[in-house]
Amino acid sequence: MTDPAAVLEALRLELGDAVVTDPARLEAARGDKSGHRSDAPPLAIVDARSIEDVQATMRIATRTRTPVVTRGAGTGLAGAALATTGEIVLSTLAMDRVIEIDEDDLLAVVQPGILNGRFNDLLGERGLWFAPDPASRAISTVGGNIATGAGGLLCAKYGVTRDAVLGLTVVLSDGRVIRTGHRSVKGVTGLDLTALMVGSEGLLGIVVEAIVRIRRRIEGTVATIASYFPDAASAARAASAVSAAGVQPAVMELMDARSLAAVDALLGTTMGAAGAAHLVVQTDGPAAASEASSALAIIESFGGTAELTTDPAEGERLLAVRRAMHPAMERLGTTLIEDVSVPRSALPAMFAAIADVERRFGVTIPTVAHAGDGNLHPNFIFDGDVVPDHIWEAADALFTAALALGGTLTGEHGIGILKRRWLQDELGADQVDLQRGIKAVFDPLGILNPGKVFPPAE
Amino acid sequence: MTDPAAVLEALRLELGDAVVTDPARLEAARGDKSGHRSDAPPLAIVDARSIEDVQATMRIATRTRTPVVTRGAGTGLAGAALATTGEIVLSTLAMDRVIEIDEDDLLAVVQPGILNGRFNDLLGERGLWFAPDPASRAISTVGGNIATGAGGLLCAKYGVTRDAVLGLTVVLSDGRVIRTGHRSVKGVTGLDLTALMVGSEGLLGIVVEAIVRIRRRIEGTVATIASYFPDAASAARAASAVSAAGVQPAVMELMDARSLAAVDALLGTTMGAAGAAHLVVQTDGPAAASEASSALAIIESFGGTAELTTDPAEGERLLAVRRAMHPAMERLGTTLIEDVSVPRSALPAMFAAIADVERRFGVTIPTVAHAGDGNLHPNFIFDGDVVPDHIWEAADALFTAALALGGTLTGEHGIGILKRRWLQDELGADQVDLQRGIKAVFDPLGILNPGKVFPPAE
């Protein structure tokens, strides 16, 4: 590796003002929304303004063998964008334009730095929307969605991020550019590198432009049901029954008692007084009313106390509660947020497993779930930057339970550094070797986000 | 490479009766439904009955450096499963069981050899279905769908094959087994090898089991509109206008005059007398009736003569006409079936480009289109096994036009051998190099379907 001062000089020579070494900015690039931090600040941040800036950065990085961490808004929850000593942070946050909205073909071409919420505001002016809908939509970028495969609240009905990405422009580790995919609905020319890039967490290249599918606004009534249950297990059983009955909610979110208490503390609400678990179901589209009525009957038959509203503002208020979950957790301490995903029918079993882990390890684990798709976010809370051993052990027990139920380590946050220790448990050694091989094809020098996803070699 | 007789002996020793050298079977493995044939029959066929049989075959192939062509029902249209001298054909057609149907989680676990039609019959008994719906459903396998990324008639509304595959069990080139993906709706652990396998045309490994998404039967009316237009261009404009108006047909199929004549000749129908282009639109779901009524008005405003039926049998009869297209083409001679896909709004421009190619090269190109997703199948017909030069030239002009419209070489058939000469035109040299690199990670000896997809090295 070249001397850091020489790297910095080369960057400044080529990129001028785009190169930032302001200590506050460098400090911020040590962390993300998981609350975890790297051990030291990076060398510099490049605020890329164009594809050419990204190419120039990667050419210098390749020439000087300098590691590069691509970063958007820094809202990740797995530590995938943490940067440390000697690393260049390649920020795509300033590349935030919507280049094209094609209403006839229902696609948009965007730069990676556009915020999800902002993108949806622009689309909304034309009666359109973008389905991937992370709870962090107001502060997270579309590029971050693509890098992590972030999903959100609407995946069960409207698909995961991979389904919404048609094509990508990618800068490779040596500065060359490739264009994957197409503007058509279908396309199977060669290996599907577009899908391979989605969720690749900065390991393979830098997404500098994306062709994404957009949708026409769903017309008609939106029905929202808010319900309370005596415990999370019964709410989970009701949620599974709603899905099994053939109702397809746009949103179905479950919050347990500890989550309700945390959100109450943040927002000054009193949900915790109404019950020990909360299930919100939202239906949309032509069958919204009949689906809501079926869901309501099922919820009540499982012991839920429910009310149904078709008022849009009231419905949005009920979802705002769910979106407040992460800020509420941040107030409690540092969080190790899990992101296990299990088959929908295993949701009650997963809640039982969480309760069991709480008992065995003497920890409390506030949990919310995207109940429509079986994705749970159990939150381990602790003080300080370092995850205590007993928390790792409890998390380990919880992952093991999710895998045993046919699930996965991470539904939508990615592996980053926080889950890499379990990667091989899920994938097996042979598959990890293949993945490392693919990484080496894209990044032969190992300069793209080193140390992330794959455990360090022993 | 080991002596062929020794390879055969090793296969027989380990796999016994599963090894077939019947000349008629070997002869059949030279071709597929494109009508193209390899220059000579392969060494042997292994009728694999289990994952262990596939593993044993691949261990022998690795040890002896023998090429392996994985093959299902042989209904491919790009020559991806043609086998030649010295190659082992690994047939997964006998691995045809549905291992599990999970109605609560809406997934099924299947072996690759199950026919699409048979799978849908079994699902239909429980009120379920599998969305990928190639026109060849009665004779093609689910494994073939996955290997080619085959789509079919319903992709615009119900997704492409990649969207329907949750996880795969794959035998690697040396006989090891990996399990990719998961049973949950979401999952982003590591690189998405499940998506990478879909459409990989036998280059990376052998799919021996798949976890696929299934759906509940769509209840309610199915409305079908059959319409005739004076020419294909006006039918294409009407189809684009239907999509642009926000109607989302389950099926929207366009056949030109030459296609109608060929199907008339096969089925004894008289569609050609009614008009020079035929557009079938089918709507389903809760909005079926209102969507059909909107589509009908648009079709008539574009000069179409239309009738609407809500009778299921009549609707199915109208689609059977479309499904007869390929057998109708087979009667005319050997076919080079193109499979270009363009953005929906470019459909009229693509039909104009096809007419231009017909004029310039003095060829006739019967064309059908999945008009809902912009996927066209122009058919070049000729005599004999060898594509004449002027057909290649005409095909070349047609591909160039599709790429210029933002489209792709192949929407759902794959590259095989018939389109490999254009691979680099679409992907560019840098992306082809990356794809070759990925291939080498999975298949370091180059024994998996050599010569397919990538043009032979010069």
UniProtKB/TrEMBL annotation, chains A, B:
The keyword Flavoprotein applies. It comes from the Bacteria. The keyword Phosphoprotein does not apply. Keywords: FAD, Flavoprotein, Oxidoreductase. InterPro entries: FAD-bd_oxidored_4_C, FAD-bd_PCMH, FAD-bd_PCMH-like_sf, FAD-bd_PCMH_sub2, FAD-linked_Oxase-like_C, FAD-linked_OxidoTrans_Type4, Oxid_FAD_bind_N, Vanillyl_alc_oxidase_C-sub2. Residues 38-217 form the FAD-binding PCMH-type domain. GO terms for molecular function: FAD binding; oxidoreductase activity. Its cofactor is FAD. PANTHER family: GLYCOLATE OXIDASE SUBUNIT GLCD. This is FAD-binding protein. It comes from Labedella endophytica.
